[in-house]
Design brief:
By secondary structure, this protein is an alpha+beta fold. It contains two helices and two strands, in the order E-H-E-H. The radius of gyration is 13 Å and the shape is globular.
Length: 83
């Protein structure tokens, strides 16, 4: 836990999309991952992303995953601006 405190004030990329699977995450699943990260990272320093490169995925799956990433980030962004 001591190491996790070092994240405050730093830019952190959070892999909210699993590229080892062809299953397309839902925006709600992405948002849940981002909410967990926000316990340790300030919102302005959180960079939602995939957990690795998407080259092995089909274009259709990759596009679906990126849409889910954007939609999940938008859910959390709206929650943060409303609170």
């Amino acid at each position: 836990m001591e190491l996790i405190k070092l994240l405050r004030g730093k830019k952190v990329m959070v892999g909210a999309i699993d590229v080892a699977s062809n299953r397309i995450e839902t925006p709600e699943e992405v948002a849940a991952t981002l909410r967990k990260a926000l316990q340790f990272v300030d919102a302005e320093n959180l960079c939602p992303c995939t957990n690795c490169g998407m080259a092995p995925l089909s274009r259709t799956v990759a596009r679906g995953k990126l849409k889910a990433l954007a939609a999940g980030a938008e859910i959390v962004r709206k929650e943060l601006t409303c609170s």
